[in-house]
Amino acid sequence: xxxxxxxxxxxxxxxxxxxxxxxxxxxxxxxxxxxxxxxxxxxxxxxxxxxxxxxxxxxxxxxxxxxxxxxxxxxxxxxxxxxxxxxxxxxxxxxxxxxxxxxxxxxxxxxxxxxxxxxxxxxxxxxxxxxxxxxxxxxxxxxxxxxxxxxxxxxxxxxxxxxxxxxxxxxxxxxxxxxxxxxxxxxxxxxxxxxxxxxxxxxxxxxxxxxxxxxxxxxxxxxxxxxxxxxxxxxxxxxxxxxxxxxxxxxxxxxxxxxxxxxxxxxxxxxxxxxxxxxxxxxxxxxxxxxxxxxxxxxxxxxxxxxxxxxxxxxxxxxxxxxxxxxxxxxxxxxxxxxxxxxxxxxxxxxxxxxxxxxxxxxxxxxxxxxxxxxxxxxxxxxxxxxxxxxxxxxxxxxxxxxxxxxxxxx
Length: 411
Ligand code: SF4
What we know:
Layout: E1 14-16, H1 17-26, H2 28-36, H3 45-67, H4 75-92, H5 127-143, E2 147-159, E3 172-186, H6 189-193, H7 202-209, H8 211-218, E4 225-233, H9 250-266, E5 274-281, H10 289-301, H11 311-319, H12 331-338, E6 339-343, H13 346-371, H14 376-379, H15 386-390
Parallel strand pairs: 1-3, 4-5
Antiparallel strand pairs: 2-3, 3-4, 5-6
Helix pairs in contact: 1-2, 1-9, 1-13, 3-4, 3-5, 4-5, 9-13
The protein binds iron/sulfur cluster.
């Protein structure tokens, strides 16, 4: 008797919205070394802070859900133990903060008597702690009651762009992503029409002030439910435009990320109509001096979308010198700059998906070239700006490096 042989396994390439799309657009070649070659960056500071702040908010939500701790939270009693827990979790994964980013673990220094008053917001040493405290006490109070699910995994498949039977690796590809927070809200037109000041939730107030969102809401019946996708970013609000064609336009890429998430979520059975996404740029709550320099430049050149009505804050920023203590900005200015609403509509969503397809097509093309024998630097295009190249681990041997590495010495 002839036994049938098992059919060849069918695998489709998987792409992640943040890991692949955002990283590939920063520099194709760096993406190849880091993601496909699984070489972790040697100084993953940005990654450490991003993971730290996500972990802190996630854990704070779990604890709020269990204990219903009233806001504002006490930094030393309620927040510091969470920071410590997340820091230790990241260390297990090989992610360490720079000494100046966070207080040392209290487990190592049991005698230290830190209090919230020791937190000088603009001192680099305590920046991560200060941001965690503000993220929880400014947004947590309004965000936590809206959370339906957090760290929500979403997946979908799409047709492989430019599919060719003899050339392509597969006829489909998979997209995946993790939504930080999914909220489900009920439409209540009596509330929509009431005075905004009566709504006791800052996030809903921002949504209700957004004209495009309101227009969309009006299309639904009372008592219908809708969803909002929320994402946090451990960075400042990006400028709406970039002058340098080599710099990735984060403003646009973040929008694409939300729109792609909304498509992926809409494929899941339990989903309700997704009306908008919200991004929280958490560095805006406690900007570092480097952030302030960029905010000042963007306000003066019209490259940012928010903040122009805050004359006092603009004066403070313009009169501030880099060697001085950072100015005390108003809460309104900081909150307005840290929240961004992205309305979801069919056309914008299709455009974002086509962009994702074209990034996948480019990655697949380079991958196939390399599989057919091209050298890495011939198959992948190294093209980035000076700032990205100077922080890149591959600058010493990259042909397209835009910084001078002649004086580089091996330690
Ligand atoms: S040195 Fe610059 S061009 Fe080369 S891989 Fe790094 S970021 Fe890309």
